[in-house]
Amino acid sequence: MMNQVLSKNVSAASVVEMSYPSPLREFLSSFSNNKGALAGFCFLVLMVLAAVLAPWLAPHDPLMQFRDHMLQPPTWQDGGSVSYLLGTDEAGRDILSRLMHGARLSLVIGFSAVIITLLPGILLGLAAAFFPNTAGRLLMRLADIMMSLPSVLLAIAIMAVLGPGITNAMIAIAVVGLPGYMRIVRASAMSELNKDYVMASRVSGAGVLRLMFIAVLPNCMAPLIVQATLGFSSAILDIAALGFLGLGVQPPAPEWGTMLATARDYITSAWWVVTFPGLTILLTVLAINLVGDGLRDALDPKLKRAA
Amino acid sequence: MMSLLSIQNLCVRFGTLEKPFLAVDGVDLNVDQGELLGIVGESGSGKSVSMMAMMGLLDGQGTVTADQMLFDGKELSSLGPREKRRIIGKDIAMIFQDPMTALNPSYTVGFQIEEVLKVHLGMDRKVRRQRAIKLMREVEIPDPERRLSAYPHQLSGGMSQRVAIAMAIACEPRLLIADEPTTALDVTIQAQIMDLLLRLQKERGMALMMITHDLAVVSEVAQRVVVMYAGQVAETGLVQDVFFHPAHPYTRALIESIPESCRGARRLSTLPGIVPGQYDRPSGCLLSPRCPIAQERCVVERPELIRYTSRAVRCHTPLIPLQELKS
Predict the structure, then answer these.
(1) Best mutation site among A204, A209, A219, A225 for testing chain B: the one with the most B CBs within 10 Å?
(2) What's the pLDDT band for A253 if we cut at 50, 70, 90?
(3) Which pLDDT band holds residue B272 (cuts at 50, 70, 90)?
(4) How far apart are CA B327 and CA B325, in angstroms?
């Protein structure tokens, strides 16, 4: 009887074509349903292309000062010229070229800062989740202390110790972002730890390291990826803020925040000098945040439409 | 015959040293080779905690003590972590209550079965794959070649439980602990999974320890049964003895609350009250506040587990006369 039923099932299964959608395809279809995320992604792709191809695409050298064309307005305004599409700054440097080269700096620094935080963030977060009474207590209190300081202030303090420069700015931003990653990894690892599959893999003899990195970590990736994306945008903001304060990338290097800082004096007389770097920062951060939201919706259906 | 697993006086304490809570209180368990032992009791009676303590899964959360924890002649508590891991997972395997969380959502079913084979038996890739398919066929999963690449969320609860069973039996364990393996499944699947477990147990000659609420199942399949209440063994014996002639009032109450035994009655029979917790443990017999036949002695004095031939009962006033074993 049992066997009969079974064999019937087997034949039914072989008639109906059984195909599971691949995880990648599921992800892509649900990500592309989110129009905002898609738009943000397209903008980011353009931005990355502009950054990568800057030496070839940019109309001028970003550091070259055209002394005859100082503070020239953008091309569509009276007095603008086609060779300086977005105008020139107070030293006669082409703003478009500077923005394109600045994208290289901002994106590279933001990306590296995220990568630099991700690794210790994951390790410390997992340690805090697996040893809640020892490592967990210590690490979480440290994280609390770090999070109770305003992030820019903390970054400035670190920069003050390390001294200005691109590498140090990256390190400062990475350290500031660390507690966020630690907490996210710890929280999702702890909720995974209570599930039976963790128990099952302990029962089948898995050691702590195997549990951490093979059993638990992959299941914490969804919130982590989202946090990393949002961390990328806040890293770009932070590096711009540091640059604006004169602590990050040093002039004359074309960095968005640094450009804003030097353009401050011309805010009333030459609007384009301030507007374009500001707008670039705004659009880039917005695009990354949109992508982050889209990723969250696509990776974790439970969080969908949770604002 | 030497028993496969022999536990004497297992205690698990939770909470502080000054005011410990005895979740498991002097439990003795014996499982022979190829035997099917049923462990029954309501929620909170310490069934799962005893198993976890034995497997060493409680680390840090509770204090485990035992006079003896022998598996196949080896003392489990004296083994180093490495040796312990070699036994646990290979010779002792476990299946869990909720199949939907018992598989890792990040990996395909095939990967998870093969991982067990790789770690414990060190087979190479091709052999592993063949063996995984064979195992899946053995737990009656149709079309295993294709299902190897399915993720757990793409399988139904019954199917996931079958995969979990396949993983558990992958290394030919000698003892399989099934912690309420059918509780989270619907009734038709329950019967199938139970049939499957019984068939595997017979075919492979492994010992099966079945932890369950479902006395009806235990009465049909098990050879011996242990009835637990509030962390203690209330009664143990051969299934037919315990079920047809219960000696402990708690066992009788459990049997009477099986829906089948209430046929014709307007209401199901119940035992009022709940298992005592940390703060309301009676000083006498732990069942005394709920026991229908409790006497003065039961409120004051805590009964010991009294051993009879092939039977043990923890009660001052057993329901049937028993011949005490003089040791």
Answers:
(1) A204
(2) confident
(3) confident
(4) 6
